[in-house]
Amino acid sequence: MNLLDVAGVSYFIGDLEIIKDATFKANDGEFVSLIGPSGCGKSTLLRIIAGLIRPTKGKVMYLGKEIVEPIPEISFVFQDFALLPWLNNVENVEIGLSRSSISEEEKRKKALEILRHVGLSGFEYAYPNALSGGMKQRVGIARAIVSEPKILLMDEPFSSLDELTAEALRKDVYTMLKSKDNPVSSVIMVTHNVEEAVELSDKIVVMAQKPSYVKKILEVKMGRPRNKYSKEFRDYVNTVYKLLTT
Amino acid sequence: MGILSLIGLLVFDTLASWIRMFIALGASILLGLGIGIYAARRKTAEKVVIPIVDILQTLPILAFFPFVIYVIVATLPGYIGINAAVIFLIITSMLWNIIFGVYEAVKTLPQEFLELAALYKLNKWKRLAKIYVPASMPKVIDQSTLSFAIGLFYLVTSEIFSTANSTYAVKYGIGVELTKLAISNNFAAYAIGIAVFIAFVVATRLFFFAKLEKYYTRYNAPIRLKPLSQARHRQYAAFAHAIVTHIPRIRFRTENKQQIERVYTPKPEKKIISSKAIGYALLSVTILLILFYRPFSANEGTVLASLAVSFARVWLAFALITIIAVPLVVYLLFMSKHASSYLLLFQILASIPATILLPIIVTALKGLPMHDELVAFTVYFLSGIWYVVFSTLANKAYIPSNMLEVKRIFGVRGIEAWKKMYFYAILPGLITGAVTGIAAEWNASIVAEYFTTSAIGSGAVITSVGIGIGKLLDTSLDSGNLSLMLLGLLNLTIMIVIINRFVWNRLYRKIEAVSK
Q1: A104-149 per-position pLDDT tens digit
Q2: In a mutagenesis test of the B interface, which of A86, A100, A107, A148 is the best target, namely the one with the most B β-carbons within 10 Å?
Q3: Which positions ≥6 away from B30 have C-beta within 8 Å?
Q4: Tens-place pLDDT, residues B124-143
Q5: Which of A54, A233, B246, B371 is the most buried (most CB within 10 A)?
Q6: Which residue of A has its CA nearest to B515?
Q7: Which residues of B touch A91 (CB under 8 A)?
Q8: Are residues A119 and A35 in the same domain?
Q9: Which positions in chain A touch B514 (Cβ < 8 Å)?
Q10: Nearest beta carbon to residue A84 from set B403, B427, B516
């Protein structure tokens, strides 16, 4: 059984078809990227997977069970961080443990631990607005993984950051997600950055727009760590570009 | 009287009131442009004018009415005097926020515009006509909507007035007419009168303010290219915004942001106006007068007691407002799927000023124990609630956009959602609403606590509480005791300034420090 199945998902706003018959799956241990031109409905598709939006047709299944609302096993990282400005960082991370029945002290302990894990020691009690964009997104990631979800959905997690910050965070995120003690077994990331997709993904779902449909699913069979300047890497990048532009 | 001729009469009365309103609005706009531009362009004028306007607009202007009336009506003869007085009174309620709107618009003009003017050697009049006035107009229209609403609030008290020496009522006016109908127990006619009034309010908004706004914001075209629902939402937001922008400090914060996002990208002059000096001056003068001026020192005890009792009424009403408004607003903002329909209903309800409802409230509560207290409480409640509701709703733009998605993804529910999300999300708006709502309540004190209809013939005091600052102001004028009235005003003013400074501003700064 697949960890996640997106089966024939269509989405309409009124009579306007936004997403047309999107189908793909994510298996254990897979990093999947959804890539496509901006405005093609990738973020909408990700929200459908999260259970935030119901599809008009088709369904999304987690371990064979249809997702009709957000479930604890699937977590979300937002493009613009979506931290609550009135809560400090550790309190923001504790939001991620809302469903958990453990005591407040244990929640605090877990939240502090995960903040250290994402490299934010010393900023636990600062407010989000005191942080840089990259640090804010680290809080966002800490909040998303503190509850140990199986699937992590990321909506253009690096696109609000400058390129250098984004690159550093990408590396850290990847190392973190692939480390043995990490419970997240699959990631689905929306992006419009081709290199980012090739660098991180095991599978790239290339989408075309109006309405958005799955144009091609590309397996990236390349060892890690990946060298951006290798011929193999450039070939993948070129292939994805070609798919996106034709 | 047949129903048609009744409606005809009511329409005629409303027209008469509306003519006064528009004359007052026109005058307020001209004065507002003049004073606002002057204050924004002259450093010395700025230092004097802005703090005074700042204080004037936080104060219950209505409390100043008796004094102004006394002066004007006493000096001008006949109907001219009465109508001049009414118009003048309405202007005192409309002017201040327009001055601030103009001042802000000119202050936040991009430097490049001024450099352009210098480059092409535009003279003073050209600068006015080509830069300052057009740049101010969107703000002026925005503020005029609010001014019109405040003006309506003062309509009844402006049209009917009695003091010991002079008693007057205008001959034709919807405020007078509604009061007459209510005290003669003609409820059906009263209801028709309210309907005519609401129709006029809605028509004015749709056919006057909406058109004007469209005209003066035509060059902001890109923002208007939005889906219908959003455009409608923007209208609501603009209305709510107009209702709530009453306090300069808070307006400075929100509107500067909006302007930056919307129109230009000026460097906003983050200037917090200091009315401190004036406050302290007022305080020390009053203390000196109370200590050494005999008519003041003899009455200070009574005034303080009256103020304390009114304070209790105002804040009790505010407590009830909060208890009702908070769940209502949270429901509308975060849960309801039909929020826009409710908003429309609230806008119509809010367009009926509490002062116009007073006669019917008095009659409706007849026979109940503590009748006059109940009337006062109801009028306070109705005067304050819409400010709290609308300013809390208007704060929506500053709530993190994905908050509800965060809530659903991470399963934040029940008490936790209230504690960690809803409460903080609405808090800034709630505080703005508290400041403006309580100011509106104080404004209403002069009507809520004491109301007499002697000017329209019945000669009756239709509601009068035991003790209260509103009543004290009314009755001291009735009996010609001007020094007592002045003392009451000074005490009220000082109390409001102190509470603004030590309660609201502090709270506000605390919140601003966290959620920029």
Answers
A1: 899 999 899 889 888 888 888 988 888 888 889 999 999 998 988 8
A2: A86
A3: none
A4: 888 888 888 888 888 888 78
A5: B246
A6: A85
A7: 420
A8: no
A9: 85-86, 127, 129
A10: B403
B100, B57 in Cβ contact below 8 A? Answer: yes
Question: What confidence category does residue A235 fall into, taking pLDDT thresholds of 50, 70 and 90?
Answer: very high
Could you say which residues from 405 to 424 on chain B have a Cβ atom under 8 Å away from some Cβ of chain A?
405-406, 408-413, 416, 420-421, 424
Q: pTM here?
A: 0.77
- For residues A66 and A87, state if they share a domain: no
- The reply to whether A115 and A201 lie within a common domain is no
Residue A162 has a pLDDT of 85
Q: What is the CATH number of the domain that holds A27?
A: 3.40.50.300
Tell me which residue has tokens 């005209």.
B215
**CA–CA distances in Å: residue B136 to residues A131, B48, B99:** 37, 21, 10
Please report residues of A whose CB lies closer than 8 A to that of B424: 84, 86-87
> Do residue A103 and residue A47 come from a single domain?
no
Tell me whether residues A98 and B413 touch, CB distance under 8 A.
yes
Contact residues for B241 (Cβ-Cβ < 8 A; gap 6+): B142, B394
For every residue of B141-205, DSSP letters joined together read HHHHHHHHHHHHHTHHHHHEEE-SS-EEE-SS-HHHHHHHHHHTT-HHHHHHHHHHHHHHHHHHI
Most B CBs within 10 A among A16, A73, A98, A110, hence the mutation to make, goes to A98
Q: For B424, which residue in chain A has the nearest alpha carbon?
A: A86
What is the helix (H) or strand (E) element at residue B398, kind and residue range?
none
| Chain B residues in contact with A84 (beta carbon < 8 A) | 400, 403, 406, 420-421, 424
- CA–CA dist B492, B307 (Å, integer): 7
In CATH, the number for domain B3-267+274-514 is 1.10.3720.10
Question: Are residues A162 and A108 part of one domain?
Answer: yes
Identify the band that residue B354 occupies on the pLDDT scale cut at 50, 70 and 90. Answer: confident
Residue A165 lies in a domain: yes
| Closest CA relative to residue B23, chosen from B98, B86, B97, B67 | B86
> Does residue A110 share a domain with residue A69?
no
What ipTM is given for this predicted complex?
0.89
Q: What is the pLDDT, as a whole number, of residue B316?
A: 95
In a shared domain, residues A207 and A246: yes
**Residue A153 in domain:** no
For residue A174, the enclosing domain spans 83-148+158-183
Residue of chain B with shortest Cα separation from A148: B410
Are A85 and B413 within 8 A, CB to CB? no
Task: Kindly state the DSSP code that residue A212 receives in the 8-state scheme.
Answer: B
A176, A190: one domain:
no
pLDDT at A236: 92
